[in-house]
Specification:
heterodimer; A: 258 residues; alpha/beta; TIM Barrel; B: alpha/beta; Rossmann fold; 7-stranded mixed beta sheet; two-stranded antiparallel sheet; globular
Chain lengths: 258, 204
């Protein structure tokens, strides 16, 4: 049985891990490699590395940081931020990414998803979907959350799945960095909309928030600041999920058997 | 003592850095190449794979690597195929109908069904008794396609995702993993060492 994944997220800018509130007001949280190794030792199932400045600077993710983290990491690494072309993906895989997340460039030109899925396979391609509430609906945000796209988040998730993405990394723009917990209504709505694996992101402060995300149908639970600031550890999160009845990989190599 | 060298086949469609880093951690020196001669002569070869069956097979043929792979596997020279690498050993795949694979493993590659696809994350591998390289444990997968029956002549390890599928195969010095040893922590590191004949003390 597939284990529920716990994924620490490294938002990077200028070679450092940063974290803000609603993608803004960034503060320094430490060295990417040091954090990556701590999370791996604590039992992280994979890591996500997002270059939060890349799209705005009109470039791909910083390859030096990817290389540095990859050299020591024994678990999967998904990289995103400013990915616009097949050449960008090749460079990232070459530098050490295992999977690549795409957001703004795919909203601007959806056929990019078909091209990347055809070349690299669907399991390599992650849709980074940043969504914000807009009345009763959810709207896609692009350019590191700065711009509302006018696109309905559920419709976009379905289209991206049809075009070949193998996973949706769903971040609530409203909840990001606020500590109010995942937007469970958003999570449940996207869960109903697509069949590919779904990663919940944005707003976690407590163990209960993570358990609620799992109950809402997430296949993987992403969090950043609670791990960076040692409010909890990956190991403690996994024990809490195991107690709640979810199958997790308890490091090293042990697992709950529900 | 010098570190044994492993040649990683460069297809242009793989997570090469992760594979190389995994091999280095396991005590090997990793070198990438797309040369058929180098591939045929190398003491140890890894055929990595992220990508789709059709484009990856086209790359192998374009570089003339298909014949070299067939030759070294026929001679039972140490070879480890990873993920799509395993699928490329087969004759055909539902992912790319009409594209001929290497045809060394007599079982079709089928799409996973009945549960969440792609199959992404850590799952349990059940190794068969008598295996030289494969052991049971939690390993990392990222696949939408797999073999659903064991090909004749191979020892098969199994994983369950809605239904059982082949998680890995071994026959002599050929080992093929549907999962990613380079992303499977200490389990993967130890597998690299057994599959490719590492020397000295285990770093993992």
């Amino acid at each position: 049985m597939l284990r529920l994944r716990v994924i620490p997220c490294l938002d990077v800018a200028g070679g450092r891990v940063v974290k803000g509130v609603r993608f803004d007001h960034l503060v320094d949280e430490g060295d990417p490699l040091a954090l990556a190794l701590r999370y791996e030792a604590e039992g992280a199932d994979e890591l996500v590395l997002l270059d939060v400045r890349a799209t705005l600077a009109r470039r791909g993710p910083e390859l030096a940081t990817v290389r540095r983290v990859r050299s020591a990491l024994t678990i999967p690494l998904t990289v995103g931020g400013g990915v616009r072309s097949r050449a960008d993906v090749e460079r990232l895989l070459e530098a050490g990414a295992d999977r690549v997340a795409v957001n703004s460039a795919a909203v601007a030109r959806p056929a990019l998803l078909d091209e990347l899925a055809a070349a690299f396979g669907t399991q390599c391609l992650v849709l980074a979907l940043d969504a914000a509430r807009a009345g009763r609906a959810f709207e896609v945000r692009v350019e590191s959350g700065r711009r509302a796209s006018g696109l309905d988040a559920l419709r976009w998730a379905r289209e991206a799945e049809r075009r070949g993405v193998g996973e949706v990394l769903l971040t609530s723009h409203d909840r990001d960095g606020t500590g109010q917990g995942y937007d469970l209504a958003l999570l449940a709505a996207v869960r109903r909309a697509v069949r590919v694996p779904l990663v919940a992101s944005g707003g976690v402060r407590t163990l209960a928030h993570l358990v609620a995300g799992a109950r809402a149908g997430a296949d993987a639970l992403l969090a950043a600041s609670i791990f960076h600031r040692r409010a909890t550890s990956v190991a403690r999160v996994k024990r809490a999920l195991a107690r709640a009845g979810f199958p997790v990989r308890l490091d090293p190599g042990r697992a709950t058997r529900p | 003592m010098s570190r044994p060298e492993v040649l990683v086949v460069r297809t242009g469609l793989a997570n090469l850095a992760a594979v190389r880093a995994g091999l280095e951690r396991a005590g090997f020196r990793a070198r990438t190449s797309a040369s058929p001669r180098a591939l045929e002569r190398a003491a140890r070869v890894v055929l990595p794979g992220v990508g789709a069956f059709g484009p990856a097979m086209a790359e192998l043929v374009r570089h003339g690597l298909d014949e070299s792979l067939r030759a070294r596997i026929a001679a039972d020279r140490p070879t480890l195929a990873i993920c799509l690498g395993l699928q490329l050993l087969c004759a055909r795949s539902a992912e790319s109908p009409g594209v001929a694979g290497l045809g060394l493993v007599r079982a079709p590659v089928l799409r996973l069904g009945g549960a969440r696809v792609p199959h992404l994350g850590w799952n349990r591998l059940e190794a068969p008794p008598g295996a030289r390289v494969l052991t049971s444990g939690l390993v990392y997968y990222a696949n939408s396609y797999a073999l659903r029956r064991a090909p004749r002549g191979f020892l098969a390890a199994w994983t369950e995702h809605g239904q059982p599928f082949v998680g890995a195969l071994e026959r002599g010095n050929l080992v093929a993993c549907q999962f990613h040893p380079e992303l499977s922590g200490t389990h993967g590191c130890a597998l690299f060492r057994r599959a490719l004949g590492a020397r000295g003390r285990a770093p993992c």
